[in-house]
Amino acid sequence: MTDASLTLTLPDAEATALLARKLAPGLAAGDVLLLEGPIGAGKSHFARALIRARLQAPDAEVPSPTFTLVQTYDDGKAEIWHADLYRLGHPDEGAELGLDQAFTTAICLIEWPERLGDLTPPDALHLRFEPLADDSRRLQITAPESWQRRLAVLSGSGESLAEDAPDSAQTQTAPSQDA
Ligand SMILES: Nc1ncnc2c1ncn2[C@@H]1O[C@H](COP(=O)(O)OP(=O)(O)OP(=O)(O)O)[C@@H](O)[C@H]1O
Ligand SMILES: [Mg+2]
């Protein structure tokens, strides 16, 4: 299967939040977003903006699930699971948390998805946040075919993001092939 890859530059935290707000309305139960990148990359910031957009509550409290591992929300259309798996010892613990079930019944936002091992859903959307020297972030989105139509809200997205927030993002698209 051919994955598509989209690389964005997110100059500041608001650009990260704007991207999350753009993706939020198109999501549905069964969608899994794997939020990759080092400590402080902006994974929780992205998840918080996305959850607030889904809840239509810009000030909703969205704590980082660093210690609870999972926080759940209900936006009236779908359940949302926000997980931080940094402290997950073994993928089996992910199944014990009910993550494998949630992958089919909820919108799932997963920080430190590397911990999932074999539990990783094959059709998930990958978002890799990379802090750059100037404190901006490079974001690489890798999308299985099932996501590509929905990512149209982002592609050509230089313009569409720039429309809402001038100079806040630049994009390049490139096809990539599954290994
Ligand atoms: N595009 C960006 N440019 C600059 N700063 C950003 C950007 N996106 C997010 N940030 C900032 O990065 C900081 C750290 O973000 P966050 O806590 O979300 O990291 P994290 O990836 O969840 O880390 P952890 O692995 O510890 O959970 C926040 O203060 C946020 O405002
Ligand atoms: Mg975090």
The CATH class is: Alpha Beta
Rounded Rg: 15 Å
Mean pLDDT: 88
CATH architecture: 3-Layer(aba) Sandwich
**In sequence order, what are the helices and strands, one letter per element?**
EHEHEEHHEEEHHE
- Globally, the shape reads globular
Number of strands: 8
Q: What class do helices, strands and sheet pairing give?
A: alpha/beta
Distance N to C terminus: 9 Å
Small ligands present: adenosine-5'-triphosphate, magnesium ion
Low-confidence stretches: 158-170
The CATH homologous superfamily is named P-loop containing nucleotide triphosphate hydrolases
Count of domains: 1
Reported for the largest beta sheet, the result is:
8 strands, mixed
Strand content: 25-35%
Say what the CATH topology is: Rossmann fold
Describe the structure.
Helix content is 27%, strand content 30%. An eight-stranded mixed β-sheet has the order 3-4-5-2-6-7-1-8, sandwiched between helices. Strand 6 and strand 7 form a beta hairpin. The chain has one domain (2-177): Rossmann fold. With 179 residues, it is α/β, with parallel strands linked by helices. The chain has helices at 13-23, 43-55, 91-96, 99-105, 145-148, 157-164; strands at residues 2-10, 32-36, 70-74, 79-84, 106-111, 125-131, 137-143, 170-177. Helix 1 crosses helix 2. The longest helix has 13 residues, at 43-55. Bound molecules: adenosine-5'-triphosphate and magnesium ion (MG).
